[in-house]
Design a protein that fits this description.
By secondary structure, this protein is mainly alpha-helical. The protein has one domain. The relative contact order is 0.18. About 50% of the residues lie in helices and about 10% in strands.
Length: about 120
C-alpha cells in the first residue's frame, strides 16, 4: 500500500498527552499536525518502512515495549520516547534522503507518495 500523508490533522495534537507530537504514522498513513517539511516526511516515511518490515503488529509491539522499558528505566516520557529504537533510526537518517531511497520499496522511489511534494 502506498503511504498517504494527511496534513493539518488533529490526530497528533489529540495524542500529545505526555510529549508534543508533530506527526504520527499509523501503518501507511502519516498524520501531520501542521505544515510538513522534507525532514519530517522522511522521518515518518522511515516509520512506514519499519511497519512494513515488521508486519505492522511487530512494529507496534516492539515500539510499545521500547517505550514502556524506557519509562521504567528513565522515569521520563521524553527520554523514553527518544530511546525507542525506531525513533533513533528515524532521527539518525531523516537528514539523508539517500538512506530513505535505499530503504523504501521500488515503487516509492519516484516519490509517488500521496501528499509528498519532494525535497
Amino acid at each position: 500500500m502506498t503511504p498517504r500523508i494527511i496534513t493539518n490533522s488533529r490526530l497528533p495534537k489529540l495524542l500529545s498527552w505526555f510529549i508534543p507530537i508533530k506527526a504520527i504514522t499509523l501503518g501507511p498513513w502519516i498524520f501531520i499536525a501542521g505544515k510538513s517539511n522534507a525532514k519530517l516526511i522522511r522521518h515518518e516515511l522511515i516509520h512506514v518502512v519499519q511497519y512494513k518490515e515488521l508486519w505492522y503488529l511487530g512494529f507496534i509491539l516492539l515500539y510499545l515495549y521500547d517505550w514502556l522499558e524506557g519509562l521504567v528505566r528513565f522515569r521520563s516520557f521524553r527520554k523514553a520516547y527518544r530511546a525507542i529504537r525506531f525513533e533513533q533510526e528515524a532521527r539518525t537518517w531523516q537528514e539523508y534522503p539517500g538512506y530513505l531511497e535505499a530503504r523504501v520499496p521500488h515503487a516509492w522511489r519516484t516519490h509517488r507518495v500521496k501528499g509528498y511534494k519532494g525535497d
